[in-house]
Write a structure and sequence with these properties.
Shape: globular
Strand content: under 5%
Number of helices: 8
Largest sheet: 2 strands, parallel
Number of strands: 2
Order of helices and strands: HHHHHHHEEH
Strand order of the largest sheet: 1-2
Radius of gyration: 21 Å
Helix content: 40-55%
Distance between the termini: 34 Å
């Protein structure tokens, strides 16, 4: 089961200007082959299908804990895309063509299908699909695949970071570079314990330190590159049997934490878009809804 908290993983800054084409690039981090929907669903199905949980509990706990964190990453990317689209259009009479300036943008689907909000697509508008999931049942193959998946995800984040300087995108990408680095190291350490091969010697992949990026430094200064969370009140505690020792880059102690990180951010409130008929609820409708809610509550 999953427990939901009505907060974002971090607080996202809100830019003063929209960047709809930048939002289209960020869509790759959502629904691309190496996007957050892929990391989430790979680990989700591997955790569902894991064989030998009792004997191999630390490995199962690693996969399960990272799965839970990935839910929050999908939510973070979606909200980033949403905020990057705010202000792209303005209200207007339908005959005034208020969406005229969107027809030549990179992903018109963001304006036709979803009223300027994220979709489970990549940066070219291709839908995410389940063939991106690898769940072989073989522990080594799946861990190796996860390491490969996270390294590719890191590569794509670095490239998207270089494509847009929108403050929301930069903040989100910087944070995910740090947390993705934790996942890469976690799978590398799991492979080392399972096989005896020191996969950590390959890091970082690509060979560029996170400290190069302005938006990562805050999180590394807080030690978030050395922390792995269970995202559970009392379960998955055996991550500590794998997530231990020192960080291969700075030598700091690796720390396993029960529960969630001690920081978060509010869920952004998206403005109404009358030109997109979203949410399509008038003031009169709101009054009627309020009356119905009162009646249903017996008030």
């Amino acid at each position: 089961m999953f427990k939901r908290v009505d907060r974002l993983a971090i607080e996202l800054p809100i830019g003063s200007n929209p960047d709809p084409n930048g939002a289209s690039a960020v869509q790759e981090l959502m629904g691309g082959r190496f996007g957050e929907m892929s990391t989430l669903n790979n680990y989700l199905f591997q955790s569902f299908n894991f064989r030998g949980k009792t004997k191999l509990r630390p490995f199962y706990d690693i996969v399960a804990s990272i799965t839970a964190e990935e839910f929050g990453h999908v939510e973070l990317v979606a909200n980033t895309i949403n905020l990057m689209l705010v202000g792209t259009t303005s209200p207007g009479d339908p005959d005034a063509t208020p969406l005229r300036n969107t027809k030549d943008l990179r992903m018109s689907s963001l304006f036709i299908e979803s009223a300027q909000t994220a979709l489970p697509y990549d940066s070219m508008g291709r839908p995410w699909n389940g063939t991106f999931v690898t769940s072989t049942g073989n522990l080594i193959v799946d861990l190796l695949h996860n390491f490969f998946l996270e390294c590719n995800a890191r590569t794509h984040k670095m490239r998207v970071y270089e494509m847009t300087d929108h403050p929301t995108a930069r903040a989100m990408t910087g944070y995910l570079l740090v947390r993705g680095g934790v996942h890469i190291l976690a799978y590398a350490k799991a492979l080392e314990i399972a096989t005896g091969v020191d996969v950590t010697k390959m890091l970082p992949v690509p060979n560029l330190d996170n400290s190069v990026f302005d938006a990562t430094r805050k999180w590394e200064a807080l030690g978030e590159h050395r922390r792995l969370y269970t995202f559970s009140d009392k379960d998955y505690q055996q991550i500590a049997q794998i997530w231990k020792g020192t960080h291969p880059r700075d030598g700091g102690k690796l720390e396993a934490y029960a529960g969630l990180p001690g920081y978060s951010g509010p869920i952004p409130e998206l403005p109404e878009l009358s030109e997109e008929f979203a949410p399509g609820i008038s003031q009169e409708d709101l009054q009627q809804i309020a009356e119905r809610l009162k009646r249903s509550a017996g008030l």
